[in-house]
Design brief:
about 425 residues; alpha+beta; Beta-Lactamase; 3 domains; 6-stranded antiparallel beta sheet; 5-stranded antiparallel beta sheet; rod-shaped; GAF-like_dom_sf
């Protein structure tokens, strides 16, 4: 074969290859599937469709750059290793959930791809590069993670975990798993629905949480106060210009917040339970995925708060029942004590009456003296007319004046003269 023929064949191969690449670019040009073509052992990016450029980033996915320069981050090595393997072995390879982290620091974005890598060959069959076809599965992956976290939250609620733990865990899981940087806040409504209290906001500054703790519900009171008042979602895409934030704009500026979307958390009967809010650092409107996330986790928060209120009501009812049981036990104990004391008093009275009857019977046989025996040391010359006795068995005769004094001043003294009523008169006096 002449050199001219060889040159012509090489040109045909190149033209055929270019035509094939043009066909693939046309096929994947407007697709959400990604397509990219790499050449040589360093995998120089030759061509790619807009979906690839958008996924990787227009500023880094530039034709002519080696793949190691396109994805310099350590988390891009899995992609690089996959392309290396296909170029080295000449065998196609399919891999799922290939993880790439694009960028660094707070602006880093985690992405996942399902990829099929195929070798590109020249006419002689030698591998000249690698063709990559795939789809970005980042949203699916994040949705799977969010649903897993959601199931875990439901299990926590079922286990009656403390409300603060459930809400804090929910906020952290959303903040960690959602691709964009955001901050979650849950405020809890007072029983009268007129104020909102701090529930959970693990990533917002303490000064901000303290400042909004206890804010009133009402029209124009930020995003959350307004959402609670209206009982409907309130989207503030730009805190810097929205009049709802006139009284709180300085706090938002200090905390570095640019947007706040708040949704009321309502019980099944429509009672206000609180608000669920997503904050962003820059002005932003919610997308369909954001609205779906808000709906899912607002419902989860409602379930957790309602369960908490139910548990609190149950505990309060149990505490009231226990207090009532304790009061009843005290009342029964007091009644038993009073009854015992009454029985003791009755027994003592019966014993006293028995002694008095015995004393009366004994003293009834005592002969009557002529003069009063109750005059003391001074004596009394009045005739002895009435006989008195006490429960100890002592008895004496006296005149009516001294007997009356004895009856008044000595409580256990009674008239022992049967003709004057005797013991019966004393007991019934």
């Amino acid at each position: 074969m002449s050199a001219l023929d060889s040159h012509d064949q090489t040109g045909e191969v190149q033209r055929a290859t270019a035509a094939g690449e043009d066909d693939l670019r046309t096929l994947f040009g407007e697709s959400t599937a990604i397509f990219a073509s790499f050449s040589g052992p360093t995998h120089v990016l030759g061509s790619a469709n807009p979906a690839f450029m958008t996924s990787i980033g227009q500023d880094r996915a530039r034709p002519g750059l080696a793949l190691a320069d396109v994805l310099p981050e350590p988390a891009g090595q899995e992609f690089l290793a996959l392309v290396d393997q296909v170029h080295r072995t000449g065998e196609s390879c399919t891999s799922r959930d290939v993880r790439i982290v694009l960028g660094n620091g707070p602006h880093a974005r985690e992405a996942f791809f399902d990829l099929t890598c195929e070798p590109r060959r020249d006419r002689s069959g030698d591998v000249t590069g690698v063709r990559v076809i795939g789809v970005e599965t980042t949203q699916v992956k994040h949705a799977q993670r969010l649903m897993a976290e959601h199931r875990a939250l439901l299990e926590q609620i079922a286990r009656q975990a403390p409300l603060a733990d459930v809400l804090d865990g929910m906020a952290r899981s959303i903040e960690e798993l959602v691709p964009q940087e955001l901050f979650v806040s849950v405020l809890l409504a007072d029983p009268d629905g007129l104020h909102l209290r701090h529930g959970a906001a693990p990533s917002l500054p303490d000064f901000y949480n303290e400042a909004i703790d206890g804010i009133a519900t009402g029209e124009g009171v930020g995003s959350c106060g307004t959402a609670a008042h209206r009982r409907e979602p309130v989207v503030v895409a730009d805190i810097a210009t929205d009049p709802f934030w006139d009284d709180f704009r300085h706090l938002a500026d200090q905390a570095g917040l640019g947007a706040c979307w708040s949704t009321p958390i309502l019980a099944g009967d429509g009672t206000l339970l609180g608000t669920f809010a997503l904050y962003h650092r820059t002005p932003r409107v919610p997308q369909d995925t954001d609205l779906a996330l808000i709906q899912v986790f607002t419902g989860t928060a409602a379930l957790a708060i309602e369960r908490h209120h139910s548990d609190e009501a149950k505990r309060a009812a149990e505490a009231r029942a226990e207090a009532a049981r304790e009061e009843l036990a005290k009342a029964v104990e007091a009644e038993q004590k009073l009854r015992a004391e009454a029985e003791e008093r009755a027994a003592a009275a019966a014993e006293l009456a028995t002694r008095m009857r015995a004393a009366a019977a004994t003293q009834a046989r005592t002969p009557r003296p002529e003069q009063c025996e109750l005059g003391g040391t001074a004596g009394c010359t009045e005739p002895a007319e009435i006989k008195v006795a006490d429960s100890w068995g002592d008895a004496a005769w006296g005149c009516s004046a001294h007997v009356e004094q004895a009856l008044i001043h000595v409580r256990s003294v009674f008239i022992a003269s049967e003709e004057l009523g005797g013991l019966a008169a004393y007991l019934s006096r």
